[in-house]
């Protein structure tokens, strides 16, 4: 027979917890023996371990009381339900840990790995970081809205980035960011961009210039983001229009 202290030690709880369970009617309180001590048997240890385990699993004490009085089948069913809930919580917390870990990874929090790789390639090729940021900010809503299309779009980007003229296109854009709207060199930048576009259209066909098929609402959103981040881009588009091309996120020939 065990004292209350020994019972608590066996079950891994405090004496105060045992007394609390007595007060809540979860654990029967034995009569005192001739020495004035309450003595607990092995059954009390088992009951106390059940109470502790269910409570630690987040089961309210009122429900614990019900389960201690349930038959074997009802108890087993309840335990299975509790186990499933714990598995769900573990999965959710694992996913949360992964998201927390990605917070330190910057862009990868909101972008697929293939887009991150593309942005890193642009940086390695010397593309202005402001242009890289414009690209990144555009990919975030696209990847969130149409994640299934990212592989298709990135395949196109990988093909483009292998063309030195495409890189020159990005380098020219970077140079244009440092120009004021009335800077003559912005006109030169527009000439170079228009020449590049015309060469690609002649070689690959006009459909190749922009076959991403992005929704009109997203085109407006992406263009607004670009113009806010790089004000000279709006003037550059006006100059491109004079040279037969229009659009930024969706580039097409002026009809």
Please provide a written account of the structure.
This protein is mainly α and 255 residues long. The protein has helices spanning 4-11, 15-23, 42-56, 61-68, 72-103, 113-124, 129-145, 150-161, 164-176, 184-204, 206-209, 216-229, 232-242, and strands at 245-246, 252-253. The protein has 13 helices and two strands, in the order αααααααααααααββ. Strands 1-2 form a two-stranded antiparallel sheet. Strand 1 and strand 2 form a beta hairpin. The longest helix is centred in the middle third of the chain and has 32 residues, at 72-103. The radius of gyration is 34 Å and the shape is rod-shaped. The N and C termini lie far apart (96 Å). The model has no long low-confidence stretch (mean pLDDT 83).
Main features:
single chain; 255 residues; mainly alpha; Multidrug-efflux Transporter Regulator, Chain: A, Domain 2; 2 domains; two-stranded antiparallel sheet; rod-shaped
**What gap, in angstroms, lies between the N and C termini?**
96 Å
Uncertain spans: none
The largest sheet, given as strand count, sense and whether it forms a barrel, is: 2 strands, antiparallel
Strand arrangement within the widest β-sheet reads 1-2
The level of helicity is 55-70%
Q: Layout of helices and strands, plus pairs?
A:
Elements: H1 4-11, H2 15-23, H3 42-56, H4 61-68, H5 72-103, H6 113-124, H7 129-145, H8 150-161, H9 164-176, H10 184-204, H11 206-209, H12 216-229, H13 232-242, E1 245-246, E2 252-253
Antiparallel strand pairs: 1-2
């Amino acid at each position: 027979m065990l004292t209350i202290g020994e019972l608590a030690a066996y079950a891994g709880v405090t004496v105060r917890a045992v007394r609390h369970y007595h007060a809540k009617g979860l654990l029967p309180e034995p009569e005192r023996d001739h020495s004035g001590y309450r003595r607990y048997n092995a059954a009390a240890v088992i009951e106390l371990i059940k109470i502790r385990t269910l409570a630690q699993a987040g089961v309210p004490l009122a429900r614990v009381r019900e389960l201690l009085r349930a038959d074997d089948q009802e108890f087993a069913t309840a335990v299975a339900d509790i186990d499933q809930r714990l598995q769900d919580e573990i999965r959710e917390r694992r996913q949360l840990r992964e998201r927390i870990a990605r917070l330190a990874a910057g862009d990868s929090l909101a972008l697929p790995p293939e887009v991150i790789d593309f942005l890193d390639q642009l940086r390695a090729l010397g593309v202005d970081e402001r242009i890289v940021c414009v690209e990144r900010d555009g990919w975030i809503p696209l990847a969130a809205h149409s994640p299934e299309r990212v592989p298709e779009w990135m395949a196109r980007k990988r093909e483009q980035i292998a063309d030195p003229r495409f890189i020159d296109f990005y380098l020219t854009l970077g140079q244009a960011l440092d120009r004021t709207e009335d800077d003559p060199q912005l006109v030169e930048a527009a000439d170079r961009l228009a020449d590049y576009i015309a060469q690609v259209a002649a070689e690959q066909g006009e459909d190749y210039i922009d076959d991403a098929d992005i929704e009109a609402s997203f085109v407006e959103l992406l263009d607004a983001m670009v113009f806010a981040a790089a004000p000279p881009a709006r003037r550059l588009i006006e100059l491109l229009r004079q040279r037969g091309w229009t659009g930024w996120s969706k580039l097409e020939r002026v009809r």
